[in-house]
Structure formats: C-alpha cells, structure tokens
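$ ./design --mode recover --in tokens.txt
reading tokens...
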C-alpha cells in the first residue's frame, strides 16, 4: 500500500473531499509520502507542482475546483486501485530569466507558459531572437507567450495558438493580439530553442513577464528555454490520461 498524503485547496468542496478520503485511507505527512493526492483545481495543482517539484514524489490530482484539465475525476472509492493503474506523465518546465529596467535579473520556472504582457494603454514593441538570431525585428502587440505541450491547451489556446501533442519535442510561440506584422500567427519551435525577447522602448511601453505564478514588471529583456534540470511526474487514470485529453481538445466542436 502506498503512503499517501492528501493536500487540498481552501474551497469547501476540496476540504470536504480531503476529510472524506482521509477517513477512508491512511495518510502520512508529505515528507513520508510515496504519492501526493491533491484536491482542487488546476491552479492548486500548479502550486503543488512548484512546491514539491524537487521531491520527485508523483502527484495525483482529483478535481474539486473550477478547472480540472490536470486533474482526475473525484471518487471516494477504489483510490488505491486507481493509483496503482495510473499512467505517469513527466513534465519539464520552462526557465525564464528576466532583466529588469535598472534592476537585477530574476529566474522563475513555468510548467504552462511564460508570457510577456503590456502594462499600459500602449501596445508593446518586442524584438524576438531564436538561438541568438533575430527572427522578428519588431512585434507590435498586447503580448507574446511561450508554451509547453502541457500548457498549450491553456492561455496559449485562448490566444489562438496551436495545441501540441504531449511528448512532441516542441514549444509554441504565440502572439497576443498582434497588430504588426498583421499576418504573423506565431511559430512552432524545437524544445531545445532559446527564445530571447528584447523590449523596445521600455520606458514608454512597459512590459511585464509572467512564469506561472511569478510576475516581474518593467522588464527590458527575457530569455526562455526548456530545462531538464527540474521535473514533476503527474499521475492520470489510465483511460483518461493527459495525452488523451490533449488529443481530444483538438476535436472539440
């Protein structure tokens, strides 16, 4: 029997689910656990992934929130059998390195996406380089993002970016409300690419950078790459795993 720790968000639904499961299955503290069961939505799952990233303890999410793309359906019965049959899915984050205007550099990790967003009423002007080669001299836009395959169905999809099958060695580079060049819709990049964004006219057109939960304002440049130095393993029910969910998203009417 695996040693389980139950973690929940602060919503009444998640707290009640935690109480129910702890009454049915013995639980231990996170430091002793073989598996972490999170109860909540995708936001709480992302928090758990970041907090326990370096522990290498697999995480099984149960949906008790508003959005549950990274979660499994709630059921109080047969949890041990579900955990035993669950499909492990390793996820690797993006590493964001930000240079602030007149300030120090900041590092942060993102399992979904790194996004640059305008801070004022004026559109941002951003230069884009891939592996030290300028590919777009000036993008006039509300912002731009780099997405992992796992995050491609989140903000990236809302910005009309492509859905990337899980396991594909690709990153999505997607503009947000691009004004110039009008016809540019983004790009698919190899996962080994290093993307550098140079903010043009940062004093007049300030830009912020966000990596999952970390936001840095008034940035001058941002570099993004996927890192294999960190990872987290999520567990999904065998018949409804993350790969299948991402595939189904491409056929939603």
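writing sequence...
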């Amino acid at each position: 029997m695996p040693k389980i720790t139950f973690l929940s968000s602060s919503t009444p639904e998640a707290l009640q689910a935690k109480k129910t499961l702890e009454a049915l299955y013995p639980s231990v503290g996170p430091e002793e656990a073989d598996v972490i069961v999170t109860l909540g939505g995708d936001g709480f799952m992302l928090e758990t992934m970041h907090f326990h990233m370096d522990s290498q303890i697999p995480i099984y999410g149960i949906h008790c929130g508003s959005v549950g793309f990274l979660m499994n359906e709630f059921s109080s019965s047969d949890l041990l059998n579900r955990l035993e049959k669950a499909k492990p899915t390793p996820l690797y984050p993006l590493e964001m390195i930000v240079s602030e205007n007149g300030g120090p550099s900041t590092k942060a990790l993102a399992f979904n996406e790194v996004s640059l967003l305008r801070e004022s009423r004026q559109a941002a002007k951003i230069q884009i380089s891939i592996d030290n080669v300028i590919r777009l001299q000036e993008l006039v836009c509300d912002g731009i993002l780099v997405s992992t395959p796992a995050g491609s169905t989140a903000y990236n999809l809302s910005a009309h970016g492509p859905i990337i099958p899980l396991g594909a060695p690709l990153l999505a580079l997607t503009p947000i409300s691009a004004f110039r060049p009008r016809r540019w819709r983004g790009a698919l990049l190899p996962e080994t690419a290093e993307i550098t964004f140079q903010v043009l006219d940062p004093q007049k057109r300030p830009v912020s950078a966000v990596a999952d939960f970390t936001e840095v304002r008034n940035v001058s440049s941002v570099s993004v790459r996927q890192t294999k130095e960190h990872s987290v393993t999520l567990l999904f029910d065998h018949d409804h795993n993350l790969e299948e969910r991402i595939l189904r998203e491409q056929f939603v009417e």
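exit 0
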